[in-house]
């Protein structure tokens, strides 16, 4: 059985002071916008970003611009847990990238998100009930797992299981398995296998298992 951490900040080492400590993340109150975000998410796969050449630089670990990259499903956690975590990390002096899920388009990770993934030191995927329903979240977790595996120990992943069981993420239950299967028509079986492998690897890491009370 995997050991899970009690939620705390001891694992996050204090970041070095850097110039321009203001957030370069894109934040959005998103009140009343989740339904529109879901519509765009389902329609966006008809368009693709031109990211030729960017993937070749995906695993360059020569420098970092962010201490922490938060990967999360806005529908589940943006206006509660993730927002609180982001603020706490910022107050502690960490330079954090908080992706705006609502602005994503295309089938490939590109632009600012790709740069942030490649140039982050710590990845915190916040696995929640609808995480696997988002192809973007699945692409992020696959990319951050690969970045970490090729970093020679310079990067690490600290998963949070927010109101889900680690076994859900390990695909031992139907929750994530069913959600991922719905992406096969658009992305094909090979891409699904890549996402599934990344989820299982990350879910085996020590992390925080959080359950909401009430």
Automatic annotation (TrEMBL):
Molecular-function GO term, any one: NAD+ nucleosidase activity, cyclic ADP-ribose generating
Region named Disordered: 1-59
PROSITE patterns recorded: TIR
Enzyme nomenclature, EC number: 3.2.2.6
InterPro entries reported in the protein's UniProt record: TIR_dom, Toll_tir_struct_dom_sf
Keyword flag Transit peptide: no
UniProt catalytic activity: NAD(+) + H2O = ADP-D-ribose + nicotinamide + H(+)
Protein name: ADP-ribosyl cyclase/cyclic ADP-ribose hydrolase
Classification lineage: Eukaryota, Viridiplantae, Streptophyta, Embryophyta, Tracheophyta
